[in-house]
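Dear H.,

Thanks for agreeing to be a second pair of eyes. The structure we're designing against is below in token form, covering all 325 positions.
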């Protein structure tokens, strides 16, 4: 007796398209439950990214950590998440072996995949291959790509918008603000001297971040239950005025100099790009610009209070059409 509805994908970012897969899976599970079957929604994902195994130097920077991916998949509708440890052996499996090893043991009534889903050695398997290999034991539902604002949603498109500093467009395709998390490090202590103390996060080489510049956003302590998001002016880059070499995310919580964040786990959500990174001639010029950045941050955030949720402000899609990247 089938006992699951399965969705399969890479799910980097768990964006609007991935959310659509999970939404449809929940709807199918509910419909089948009305027919007397109690079905779980199971998401199947790969880790690490396949390019990390075959061409690490060309692997994309990921939109989320594995922990965040699992948390988001559950938030958007998965009852369980199965992680396939991707390596060269798994990559060598035929489509038939993939189905027999990873799909059939879940005893699915329905398997839902996106339009560009591939699997098995050489990515030879497609949604149609999956349907053929099912042997009629389970249904295969293939969803088309989701469009937001007239553009197809994909993880690669979101990475490009982030690299360009367009965090607003990235948020529309993610369905929430883009977020980075980490433990606050002790930095150069320069912010305290200037009157703008910052919480500093190192930038992982494996993870995507917005392009260098200054942003309005929110800082939320994650180790404090029910913590309210705090308005923040956020700098991403190397701090060229002081000849910095290490890229960081530096967040100044607006009008707060009393916070003790060193060693704490925080989240930083990006709402709007304010300006590009610049080198200033002297400290006074920098401080004048920082005051301007803080003023603009207040103006932007006054209109965008975040809703409660797993990753900051929820932003609805402009249109549905469905998917996987």
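And this is the sequence the design step returned. I haven't edited it by hand at all.
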């Amino acid at each position: 007796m089938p006992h699951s509805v399965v969705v399969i994908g890479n799910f980097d970012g768990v964006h609007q398209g991935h959310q659509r897969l999970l939404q449809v899976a929940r709807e199918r599970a509910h419909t089948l439950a009305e027919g007397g079957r109690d079905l779980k929604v199971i998401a199947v994902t790969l880790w690490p990214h396949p390019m990390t195994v075959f061409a690490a130097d060309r692997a994309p920077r990921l939109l989320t950590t594995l922990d965040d991916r699992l948390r988001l998949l559950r938030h958007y509708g998965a009852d369980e998440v199965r992680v396939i440890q991707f390596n060269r052996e798994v990559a060598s499996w035929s489509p038939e072996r993939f189905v027999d090893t990873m799909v059939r043991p879940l005893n699915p009534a329905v398997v839902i995949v996106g339009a560009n889903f591939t699997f098995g050695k050489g990515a030879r398997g497609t949604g149609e291959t999956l349907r053929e290999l099912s042997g009629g034991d389970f249904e295969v539902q293939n969803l088309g790509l989701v469009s937001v604002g007239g553009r197809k949603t994909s993880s690669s498109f979101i990475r490009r918008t982030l690299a360009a500093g367009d965090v607003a467009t990235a948020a529309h395709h993610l369905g929430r603000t883009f977020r980075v998390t980490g433990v606050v490090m002790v930095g150069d202590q320069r912010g305290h001297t200037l009157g703008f103390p910052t919480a500093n996060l190192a930038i992982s080489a494996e993870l995507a971040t917005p392009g260098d510049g200054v942003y309005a956003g929110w800082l939320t302590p994650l180790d404090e239950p029910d913590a309210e998001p705090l308005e923040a002016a956020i700098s991403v880059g190397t701090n060229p005025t002081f000849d910095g070499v290490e890229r960081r995310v530096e967040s100044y919580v607006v009008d707060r100099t009393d916070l003790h964040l060193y060693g704490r786990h925080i989240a930083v959500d990006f709402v709007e790009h304010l300006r590009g990174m610049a080198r200033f001639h002297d400290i006074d010029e920098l401080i004048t610009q920082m005051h301007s950045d803080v003023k603009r941050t207040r103006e932007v955030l006054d209109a965008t209070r975040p809703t409660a949720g797993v990753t900051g402000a929820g932003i609805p899609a402009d249109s549905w059409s469905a998917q996987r990247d």
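Two observations from my side: Residues 308-325 have pLDDT under 50 and may be disordered. DSSP finds ten helices and 13 strands in the chain.

Warmly,
E.
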